[in-house]
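B., you asked whether I could sanity-check this one before it goes into the benchmark set. Here's the sequence:
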Amino acid sequence: MKSLGGLVFALSVLMGAWPVCASAQNNPRVVLETNFGDIVVELFPDDAPITVDNFLGYVNSGFYDGLLFHRVIEGFMIQGGGYYLEDYIIYYRSTGEPIISESYNGLSNVRGTIAMARGGDPNSATSQFYINHADNLFLDRENCSDGVGYCVFGRVVSGMDVVDSIAQTTVYYVSESFAYFPYNPTVDIYRAYVLACEQAYCSDVSGDGEVNLEDFAIFASRWLDGNCNSANGFCGGADLDYNGGCDFSDLMLFVGNWPTPAEE
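And here's what the prediction gave me:
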């Protein structure tokens, strides 16, 4: 049985519920810090749950930190998430197992969306992703020559100017595998991290428009659950920082949001 001892101290704080605006919890948002500026992408777990969970896993593990956007084609897309540069040599970072394609979700490869890169096998995507610099509808399932297409799983909500700047970078032919490699400068991903859901209405996990003991009961029932993902709505909204578990950091967010009226 999961211990709720770590939550008991919050009861005195939670006894006086403050009404807040009813709202569904935000979709996860990920920040890609680059040497050109920050790109913030919103992920769509309802449309691409396997892909979103896969991407969040790489983000939360620090996998993307120090990697490159290694393939940049202006008017098409920018691609990264697989390689890093060390002593002028391009190295590949080993990944986890490939995932199945969710390209059937109806999301389109329009400008500003983020999608999974893959090989010839539709179910070969691992860590590499691309951001569409233009409307690339030919990559959608219904238009793609292979009948499968490429899976969109989110969109840029801040930093398209950064994407534009990256797309305009001078590229070089290094090899057949790196035919559009930006160099001098390279495009570096300094860090990738998930934005915690800090808004007060995120604590309304029951969705009844108020933050009250019902929300606390739901939160407590998820305490120390280490399997929070898209399949269970990130533990019913209790995984406020989208790190895969309901733990002390989520509790601090939950309690910290408590007395603050929320706005959409």
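One thing to flag: Residues 29-194 form a domain with the Cyclophilin fold (CATH 2.40.100.10). Otherwise nothing jumped out at me.
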